[in-house]
Specification:
The complex is a heterodimer of chains A (310) and B (309).
Chain A (H helix, E strand, L loop, with lengths): L1 H28 L4 H5 L5 H12 L5 H13 L13 H36 L4 H15 L2 H15 L15 H27 L2 H8 L4 H12 L1 H25 L5 H10 L3 H29 L1 H9 L1
Chain B lengths: L1 H14 L11 H4 L1 H5 L1 H25 L5 H4 L26 H37 L1 H14 L4 H11 L4 H27 L3 H8 L4 H9 L4 H24 L11 H8 L8 H28 L7
Helix pairs in contact in B: 4-6, 4-14, 6-7, 6-9, 6-12, 6-14, 7-9, 8-9, 9-12, 10-11, 12-13, 12-14, 13-14
Classes of the chains: A mainly alpha (310), B mainly alpha (309).
Chain lengths: 310, 309
């Protein structure tokens, strides 16, 4: 197990290094020099040259990379080229918004998928079960941005219950959270249902029933616990997918989180912001991957044993 | 040398009946389970229809003299609802015919889906098979690469690619392929690892058939079913990702019509005519649902044990 942790952590560090180099160089080879964008074209080549020197863009790329990473690691990634605001300030406020949204979506996912999946499996082939499966199919098929349009059209335009976009009032989080959670709910519904179905056929369930234990207790206490490994294994995948979707959902609802800021920065060619945010999100994904791998090892004794032997 | 070749061939042919790939059945017989599974059949029909639509879309995108079909603007008939003024699906905010725009957009969507899936399937199958068959250091290196790539959020990678290239279809296709190959490689590797212990592979090896030939002629044919199932899911995943990126302005750029971008521009007219956003959305949903149901059906036929992804 210790060897596994060390190896995985090394993998993660290598990947992070590769990703940081790729992101850094990627943003540099993009057409349009930062200095040309920033400097006033009326002020001739001279000022662009000055600016290039000031920003350190005249130095070789590896030197620029090391300088940038140094600044980043010491907590000062620079400022935005468009707004002039320090990136760190954007990062903390946007990070807070993304965290809030991701947390809401995660809570919504499990608060919906676990009880509904459990009930669907328990009342197999009932109307409830079929309804749940239709929901699962729709959740997988409807892309989240289209779902967003439908929900906006219904709840914001027609019924006027909820705001179209924004972040000022508490209600603004409802629609983005639902859109972000939709696919995760659908996938989890299927997994919870099939995993619970498998458990319901096992001998211990019959034994517990024979003992006269109330159905609710069997279902929520015993079956759910035994059915949980695949749900937990899926959680890691869900989290990083969710992170990817924040880019789209935040943009639709103008939710000022990391995803929205990153998409904006890329569209406005605001390289310092774009590369810092991209790197931060990549780091988050790599950390999630690592945690998911380790969590799976820890949760499943068979896998744990195998890894120890390898 | 000649003698060896012919011996190899003869042995190969003699060996055919032992292959688990069933032969001597017609395509109709093979597809019988699909006909029995009504839902999968429906998925297949829907997918086939969209492939036809995409083919037409591709023609009108590629032939300059046909591009007027989806590009011609007419400011006198903007935002008409479906079935009005000779436009089956109405017109958009510039008076362009929605039906032709949907056809062209479907062409773009499925084009991206097919290119990405072909690229990632080829690379994924090749690397996965090599890793699984060779084992040892090669396997560890490739598996490491697979672990690092698999499950990376496509949208995030695409945004980074768009930052480096220009917003557009090329960046989107490159980004999705860079992530998706690992999905194929994982499954293929696992299959090769289990298949290579089987008697027919051992026999082939004992007969001195070279490794590349064993992989190509004996292992890959056994994985066609699984790969088809995965391919149908991955085309669907790509269609969604392409549309999502186009929706936030990073995908195919106007005047190239893309379904995601049509939804995005349509959202500005939700109060006047919601159809301009809803029709492309329904189109994407139908493509994805069709492919997913077909994939589920194919999975039941080829490999009941395969989990999604």
């Amino acid at each position: 197990m210790a060897r596994f942790i060390v190896r995985r952590t090394l993998y993660a560090l290598v990947l992070l290094f590769i990703a940081s180099v790729a992101i850094f160089y990627g943003m540099r080879v993009a057409p349009g020099d930062v200095a040309d964008v920033m400097s006033n074209p009326l002020n001739s080549v001279y000022s662009a040259q000055n600016l290039r020197q000031k920003l350190g863009l005249d130095k070789p790329l590896p030197v620029q990379y090391v300088t940038y990473m140094g600044h980043l690691l010491s907590g000062n990634p620079g400022s935005s080229l468009v707004t002039g605001k320090p990136i760190m300030a954007t990062l903390t406020s946007a990070g807070g918004y993304t965290l809030k949204l991701a947390l809401a979506a995660t809570l919504l996912t499990y608060a919906t998928a676990i009880p509904l999946g459990l009930l669907a499996a328990w009342k197999r082939n009932s109307v409830l079960d079929q309804g749940v499966m239709v929901l699962a199919v729709l959740g997988m098929g409807l892309p989240n941005f289209f779902l967003a349009i439908l929900l906006i059209q219904l709840f914001a335009v027609k019924l006027r219950w909820l705001p179209i976009a924004g972040y000022e009032t508490p209600q603004t989080i409802i629609l983005p959270a639902v859109c972000l959670a939709a696919e995760a709910i659908a996938i989890n519904l299927r997994v919870v249902r099939s995993s619970v179905l498998e458990e319901l056929n096992r001998d211990y369930v019959r034994t517990l029933e024979a003992k006269g234990l109330p159905e609710g207790r069997i279902l929520w206490l015993h079956v759910l616990r035994n059915a949980s490994p695949p749900i937990i294994a899926l959680a890691g995948v869900m989290l990083r997918t969710l992170l990817g979707y924040t880019l789209i959902v935040e943009t639709i609802f103008r939710w000022p989180g990391l995803g929205y800021q990153l998409v904006n920065a890329v569209l406005q060619r605001d390289y310092p912001v774009a590369q810092t945010l991209a790197l931060l999100l990549t780091l988050a994904v790599i950390v999630f991957n690592l945690l998911a791998d380790l969590g799976q090892q820890w949760a499943d004794p068979r896998v744990r044993h195998q890894a120890g032997a390898a | 040398m000649m003698a060896q070749e012919s011996v190899g061939l003869a042995v190969d042919e003699e060996f055919q009946p032992a292959l688990p790939v069933r032969r001597g059945r017609t395509l109709g017989e093979r597809l019988a389970p699909l006909r029995a599974n009504k839902l999968a059949l429906l998925g297949g029909v829907v997918s086939f229809l969209f492939v036809v639509v995409a083919g037409v879309g591709f023609v009108i995108l590629a032939v300059p003299s046909l591009q007027h079909l989806y590009l011609d603007q007419n400011v006198e008939v903007t935002l008409t609802p479906p079935f009005h003024g000779g436009h089956i699906l109405g017109t958009d905010n510039l008076g362009r015919d929605m039906a032709w725009r949907i056809v062209a957009g479907t062409g773009i969507s499925l084009f991206a889906g097919l290119v990405v899936t072909t690229l990632s399937m080829t690379v994924g199958m090749a690397l996965g098979a090599v890793a699984g068959y060779a084992g040892g250091v090669t396997d560890r290196l490739i598996s490491g690469l697979i672990d690092l790539t698999w499950g990376f959020p496509v949208i995030l990678v695409a945004v980074i690619f768009v930052g480096a290239l220009q917003p557009g279809l090329t960046a989107v296709i490159a980004a999705i392929s860079v992530v998706n190959w690992a999905g194929f490689a994982r499954i293929v590797r696992a299959q090769v690892v289990s298949l290579k212990e089987r008697a027919f592979v051992e026999a082939a090896r004992a007969l001195g058939i070279p490794a590349w030939k064993i992989v190509l002629r004996h292992l890959i044919p056994n994985m066609v079913g699984t790969s088809l199932v995965m391919a149908s899911y991955y085309v669907a995943v790509t269609v969604i990702a392409e549309a999502g990126l186009a929706f936030i302005g990073l995908g195919a750029q106007p005047p190239t019509p893309s379904l995601g971008q049509m939804i995005s521009s349509g959202r500005n007219y939700l109060y006047i005519d919601p159809w301009v956003a809803i029709i492309p959305g329904i189109t994407i949903a139908l493509i994805v649902l069709g492919l997913n149901t077909l994939g589920d059906g194919l999975r039941d036929i080829f490999d009941p044990h395969l989990r999604q992804w």
